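Q: How do we represent a protein-ligand complex in a form that can be generated token by token?
A: Start from the inputs.
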Amino acid sequence: MKIGYPNNPRKDVMEEIKWIAEHFDFIDFFMEPDKAYYDVIDAELVRKTLNEYDIGIVGHTPYYLPFSSPIEVIRKIAIEEAEKCFNAFEKLGADFVTVHGGWPPSLFNAKEGIELQIESFKILLERAEKYGIKLMYESGVKELDNYTNVAKIMQALPKLYFHLDVGHVSLHGRDACKFIRRLHTKIKHIHIHDNFGKDDLHLPIGTGKIKWENVIRELKKYYDGTITLEIFSDREYVLLAKKRFEEMWRSL
Ligand SMILES: [Zn+2]
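Then emit the structure tokens for the protein with zinc ion bound:
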């Protein structure tokens, strides 16, 4: 098991890499404006720096690319932007890249939202292949991001891997262990952070309501890959959460 941390895309990329390399095994590279998007980073320098620090990389595209917009031209541009990120991720040496699910406005039903996502992700998978990149689907924070809907998308797209965000799959009374049990053959990357089941708070683990002992026990049956602490708080708490998580992973 490897533990990583994301860069804050609003901060200087090099400073972020330096801090992450001091404490973690890999960077979860949030390729987002304004300081970490493909159009502003020096990909060659970033790759060289990652190599110098001997730190791994997992890719992450903006969570707000509207792949399920009912407006076709907006979906098309979202896909083009994602492709530009894939191109940059190839230069950075990332093999696995996260893309995010999303839903059209509520005038459209779940079935239509699933169809729009499948249509976009089919194209995204083809485009990613050109850059030697494999895509992982991270489900979101809405009620629609339930197991039934996520499973339909994963079933329709055999080449798509699943990115398990334990915080997201614990919202609205959802059972994270069910996602783990049923999708474990598809899981390639994990985000962990805590919440109280209602809002997506990205708290240090152990400070919300997620039953981490159950989650870790279930995970350890199937998974030994990359795990990102997607905790947005003071960095002292991030490091405490890392220590706590490592202890739990070892002892359970
Ligand atoms: Zn996440």
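Residues 63 and 100 are 5 Å apart (CA to CA). Helices lie at 13-23, 43-53, 72-92, 110-129, 147-156, 176-183, 212-222, 235-251.
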